[in-house]
Amino acid sequence: EIVMTQSPATLSVSPGERATLSCRASQTISSTLAWYQQKSGQAPRLLIYGASTRATGIPARFSGSGSGTEFTLTISTLQSEDVAVYYCQQYNDWPPLTFGGGTKVEIK
Amino acid sequence: EVQLVESGGGLVQPGGSLRLSCAASGFTFSTYEINWVRQAPGKGLEWVSYIDSSGNSIYYADSVKGRFTISRDNAKKSLYLQMNSLRAEDTAVYYCARTSMSLLRGYFDYWGQGTLVTVSS
Questions:
Q1: pLDDT tens-place string over residues A27-65
Q2: DSSP state letters, A43-82
């Protein structure tokens, strides 16, 4: 089973500043990585797939990068509506499909 | 508009059974692979089960294997999860999530709003 590890657990960022979230896979997964955003009380929403491709309707301030075992989700200029928990998920080798533990992004 | 609507959650005693449903609309249900993903209160996401478009290929997480059964009825555009021998650790919001129809499958492009299952005496 591929283990996904996210860091930090919580990230406090001032409005308009950059937020950088990390995700690490326990073994190489090429670019088969997705990112999801989950706001409080809501279902997750797909942000990024293929490590760097934005899903339909996702603002350009969200970008993904990385391959192999190290991945990054960047929010270029944080807005108040970006407060949420962000999860990474690998789909290179499954079952099982596995998620990271999440990074909570809050406003400083 | 793609919609996935779960139902069937509720309070059940340990050892009991529950059947969840997910009603799909806004897309050609019979051509998509679908999953169940759960989230325990205050915790992260855990993939539970997968079924392909025809129902012939099915996978489960080890934590539910032998206790849960996924199925689908393409004529009714519905997905099901039969949950038996329920345990306290199965308490969670259960989401149905559509697998994106892309070359490399395995990520979820649409999610339902979830249904809460509580296992407690």
A1: 999 999 999 999 999 999 999 999 999 999 999 999 999
A2: --EEEEETTTEEPTT--TTEEEEEETTEEEEEESS--GGG
The count of CB pairs under 8 A between chains A and B is 65
CB contact under 8 A, A50 and B108: no
The pLDDT tens digits for B29-85 are 999 999 999 999 999 999 999 999 999 999 999 999 999 999 999 999 999 999 999
Touching check for B50 and chain A: CB below 8 Å?
yes
Q: How far is B110 from chain A (nearest CA, A)?
A: 7
CA distance B16 to chain A (A): 25
As a dihedral over the C-alpha atoms of residue B82, residue B87, residue B90, residue B92, rounded to 10 degrees, the angle is: 110
